[in-house]
Every structure is written in structure tokens, then in C-alpha cells.
Design brief:
- Helices cover 70% and strands 0% of the residues.
- The protein has one domain.
Length: 151
């Protein structure tokens, strides 16, 4: 139960931070991305602050073996930048530029009852489903193309 409360509390703090910072407002985000027009640099400070918090949090986490809730600490180990990471990053950026939302702010907008948020989250879930189908197809194709042990 305490883990559920901790997750709820962290999610509420994150959502409130997105609202206060303006990250849940697609017009504000699109203004930040419009570097050739009426550029709004304020979100650069929000992102800079988030990067600093993340750097400190990861530095602390690397020195620990358990989380604050008592679970084993599991940090990402793969630092390889490959074609899939680059293409995924480009797709994320294009989607962010078109919609003005990324996943967190999209969920906040959905929770606030905004139609744009609902459309974004539905599209995001559909995209995740298509990706899963593609990955399953790719894995089955790779298995079918593997050399046979019977030879």
C-alpha cells in the first residue's frame, strides 16, 4: 500500500510541476519549438532545471543498492546509440512538434478533460500497439530466418 501511495504522490507532484511550468499547455510548447518565429525560451529553463535534477538523482542512485522504498536499484546499462534510438528520437520530436504534447503532459491534459489530450493519448496508445505488433512480427521473422539445427 505504501508503494502505491508513493507512486500516486510522485505522479501528482510530477503532474503539478508540468501544469505550473506550462509544459501541459501545447501552445506554450509549440511557442518554444518555433525558433524561426515568435520563440518562447521559457521552457528551456524548465528543461534545464529537469536535467539538473535528473543528473543529481542519477548520481545519488548510482551510489545506492536499494531504492528509498527498499527495492533493488536497477539503472539502465545500455548506452549504445543505434539506428532505432535515432529514429525513435526523431519520431518523438516530430510528434511533440505536431501535437505540442509528450506523454506526461498528454496524460495531464487527458486528466484535465481536454479533447486534445484524449486524442493525443489515444494516438500514443495506438502507436505503442503498432510498435508492439511490428516487434512481434520482426521477432517471428528473425526466428523463421534462423538456420535450422537439423542440417
Amino acid at each position: 500500500m505504501k508503494y502505491s501511495f508513493a507512486s500516486l504522490f510522485a505522479g501528482l507532484i510530477f503532474g503539478m510541476g508540468l501544469i505550473v511550468s506550462g509544459m501541459a499547455n501545447p501552445e506554450k510548447v509549440l511557442g518554444f519549438l518555433d525558433i524561426a518565429g515568435l520563440w518562447d525560451p521559457s521552457l528551456a529553463f524548465v528543461m534545464g532545471g529537469a536535467i539538473i535534477v535528473g543528473l543529481v538523482a542519477f548520481a545519488v542512485a548510482r551510489k545506492r543498492t536499494l531504492t528509498f522504498l527498499g527495492f533493488n536499484m536497477r539503472l539502465p546499462t545500455n548506452s549504445r546509440i543505434d539506428k532505432r534510438v535515432v529514429i525513435g528520437s526523431m519520431m518523438f520530436g516530430i510528434g511533440w512538434g505536431i501535437a505540442g504534447f509528450c506523454p506526461g503532459p498528454g496524460l495531464v491534459a487527458l486528466g484535465a478533460g481536454e479533447i486534445k489530450g484524449a486524442v493525443f493519448v489515444a494516438s500514443m496508445v495506438a502507436g505503442m500497439g503498432l510498435f508492439e505488433l511490428f516487434e512481434r512480427f520482426r521477432a517471428s521473422s528473425d526466428t523463421n530466418l534462423a538456420p535450422s539445427d537439423a542440417a
